[in-house]
Write a structure and sequence with these properties.
alpha/beta, 13 strands, 25% strand, 7 helices, single chain, 6-stranded mixed beta sheet, 5-stranded mixed β-barrel, 292 residues
Length: 292
């Protein structure tokens, strides 16, 4: 029987087989010997050892389309990066680091801003201006007021989506709306520091409908730049590619070089200043790291 790993806890893996249900399985020792660890999202073949109790063993892990290390998930069609527009104030530098990781792995990404009922229209416009030119689909919602959620749900249909974002963004509340029977704990945002308490502690995949799965992944607070160098970073800011032909120098890093097409596009309002400033910060961080 074939299925998909939807959760892994304490050496047990829970496999969803379409129209058959969920099976509790152990991974055979051969995977340990080959140093392969099953991941949430893996498509697997299982041997059923007890149909009544829904128990079995994972016999084989089918080839992965892609995988992430943090969070540890596989076979993603797209990512939905979910930030609060307010309470807490969005860390846009962290957002861009997440987009960078998805771009590096060639995973299509949707940017979602929640709690739009808690902020001013001008702030929504600023966020739209900052990311509307980035090439990523944008959606603004309020889970509490149930605004924009049907459009978001349509974006998920027929795909396996990784839902990720910092604690306090409202991911668990979104999951409760999409799948009330999941009965997920909703974490309160600390009034004192306006940051979310961690509520999700392991990656889990939820079946929302025919061919539609959603990962709820643990909240993250930092993303490292281990996959990048100061020379390669620019390749993963997708909006840069439209203007690189206008740079005078081949290999232009778009920082101090004269006649730079990216800096001209920035001045002309064709590239987001917020995104460019984050690029410069990360470039300098990577260049400093290379010195040591």
């Amino acid at each position: 029987m074939q299925g998909k790993i939807i959760k892994g806890i304490g050496g047990f893996y829970y496999i969803h087989a379409e129209h058959q249900g969920i099976y509790e399985c152990k991974a055979k020792g051969v995977f340990r010997n080959r140093k392969i660890k099953p991941l949430v999202g893996d498509n697997v073949e299982i041997d059923v050892i007890d149909e009544a109790e829904k128990k079995g063993n994972i016999r084989d892990i089918l080839p992965r389309k892609n995988e992430l290390i943090r969070p540890a998930v596989a076979n993603i069609d797209q990512a939905l990066v979910f930030f609060a527009a307010a309470q807490p104030e969005p860390n846009l530098g962290l957002l861009d680091r997440f987009l960078l990781q998805m771009e590096y792995r060639n995973i299509p990404t949707v940017i979602g801003f929640n709690k739009c009922d808690l902020t001013e229209t001008d702030r929504i416009r600023e966020l739209e201006e900052a990311y509307g030119r980035s090439g990523y689909p944008l959606i603004f919602v309020s889970v509490r007021e149930e605004q924009g959620l049907e459009n978001l749900k349509a974006m998920l249909a027929g795909k396996t989506t990784a839902l990720a974002g910092p604690s306090g963004a409202g991911k668990s509340s979104l999951m409760n709306w999409l799948l009330p029977e999941a009965e997920m704990e909703t974490g309160a945002v600390s009034e004192k520091i306006k940051r979310g308490r961690h509520t999700t502690r392991h990656s889990e995949l939820f079946h929302l409908g025919e061919g539609t799965y959603l990962f709820d992944t643990p909240g993250f607070s930092s993303l490292y730049l281990a996959d990048f160098t100061d020379e390669t970073l620019k390749l993963y800011f997708r909006e840069f590619s439209d203007f690189e032909d206008e740079c005078r120098f081949t290999g232009c890093n778009h920082i101090n070089e004269p006649d730079c097409g990216i800096k001209k596009a920035l001045e002309d309002g064709k590239i987001s200043r917020v995104r460019y400033e984050h690029y410069v910060q990360m470039y300098q961080e990577l260049k400093e790291h290379r010195r040591y």
